[in-house]
Design a protein that fits this description.
This protein has two domains: 212 residues, DHBP synthase; 106 residues, Threonylcarbamoyl-AMP synthase, C-terminal domain (Rossmann fold, 3-Layer(aba) Sandwich). The protein contains eleven helices and 16 strands. It starts with a strand and ends with a strand. The protein binds threonylcarbamoyladenylate (TXA) and magnesium ion.
Length: 352
């Protein structure tokens, strides 16, 4: 299959491209498109055969359910059995945006979309191109992140091309995404609602509008034997090819330890990558050093994380050492993804 790639530029009439994407979706094909979080791989969510193609293209386990993307609240009514009042409050505050909510599904959503579950995950994205593609494709678009299963999620059209070229019908290239980590997932079928995946809509932001929310305990606990409640969170995910270690502690000591570890591997002849920040990159004299963003604004770190992991893959790096980040606000999403990429391998330096 030849993948059609179309670039969308601002201040230009893109109606033809959106129509082409919509026609492909309506006829059961696969179209990757940008959202504010990461690129999604879209298919008609109400067409079981179309949704199934997603699993084949990504190499995704079939028990891992898809998120249905919509653009308005009427669509939410159609695909859910029941919408709790709290969900309406959260939707009012944070939709459209980087938040997915889980509901009991209605009859029209096929099991092929929900991985056999009676619940459905729903997101209303804010990205203009995403919204146009969803509407053109019929209004109900299943879209996981547009990466091969197990690789870091794509934050630019080039990443989608790397993973899925020749396996999907079309890529709508809308440039780099803004946020860079996938949406927060909030399960509205339990009381209190529970965060199953941290993202840019933080626990604190949810507390502000609906009070108490629970957090799936398996998310930050490397030793948990329990399976996470979002099936996709159990897979080794976001993983670079290199062996990644996170080092946590006071920043100067972290830099010393990273330099020590890096030198050790370099002297054994390995290629070594280092993830530092604007505040610290000057402290690393050896290795392939990449600046992930500034500690003053952790959103910059979130937006570069997956891209940097892919760059290290392309550079053939074998060992990566990364600094650690705050675990509040967007930091909890960053640390969740980083630790998953590291296979939970973290070195905690004690205080001196
Ligand atoms: O930001 C995002 O959410 C992106 C963009 C494209 O919208 N999409 C995304 O989809 O990250 P995906 O498939 O990569 O991740 C969906 C996650 C998986 O961990 C899956 O197990 C979970 O959502 N999920 C989906 N439906 C669920 C359900 N009914 N119950 C529990 N977890 C569910
Ligand atoms: Mg994914």
């Amino acid at each position: 299959m030849k993948t059609i790639i179309k670039k969308i530029t601002k201040n230009q009439n893109n109606t033809d491209i959106i129509k082409q994407a919509g026609d492909i979706l309506k006829s059961g094909g696969l179209v990757a498109f940008p959202t504010e979080t990461v690129y999604g791989l879209g298919a008609d969510a109400l067409n079981e055969q179309a949704a199934k193609k997603i699993y084949a293209a990504k190499g995704r386990p079939s028990d891992n359910p898809l998120i249905v993307h919509i653009t308005n609240m009427e669509a939410l009514d159609k695909i859910t059995e029941y919408i709790p009042q709290e969900a309406r409050i959260v939707a009012d505050a944070y939709w459209p945006g980087p938040l997915t909510m889980i509901f009991r599904k209605s009859e029209i959503v096929p099991m092929g979309t929900t991985g056999g579950l009676n619940t459905v995950a729903v997101r209303m994205p804010s990205h203009e191109i995403a919204r146009e593609v969803i509407d053109a494709g019929g209004g109900y678009i299943a879209a996981p992140s547009a990466n091969t299963s197990g690789r870091p999620s794509p934050t630019a059209a080039e990443h989608v091309q790397e993973d899925l070229s020749g396996r999907i019908d079309m890529i709508v290239d809308g440039g780099a995404v803004e946020i860079g980590v996938e949406s927060t997932i909030l399960d509205m079928t339990v009381t209190p609602p529970m965060i199953l995946r941290p993202g840019a809509i933080t626990r604190e932001m949810l507390n502000e509008v609906i009070g108490e929310v629970a957090v799936d305990k398996t998310l930050m606990n490397p030793n948990s034997k329990k399976a996470p409640k979002a099936p996709g969170m159990k897979y080794r995910h976001y993983a670079p090819k290199a062996d990644l270690t996170v080092i946590e502690g006071e920043l100067d000591r972290v830099a010393d330890e990273i330099n020590r570890l890096a030198q050790e591997k370099l002297s054994e002849g390995y290629k070594v990558g280092i993830i530092g920040t604007e505040e610290t990159v000057g402290k690393y004299p050896f290795g392939d050093v990449k600046c992930i963003g500034t500690r003053e604004d952790e959103a910059t770190i979130a937006s570069h994380l997956f891209g940097i992991l892919r760059e290290f893959d392309n550079d053939g790096v074998e060992y990566i050492y990364s600094e650690s980040f705050d675990s509040e606000g967007i930091g909890s999403a960053i640390m969740n993804r980083l630790l998953k990429a590291a296979g939970q391998h973290i070195i905690r330096l004690g205080n001196k």
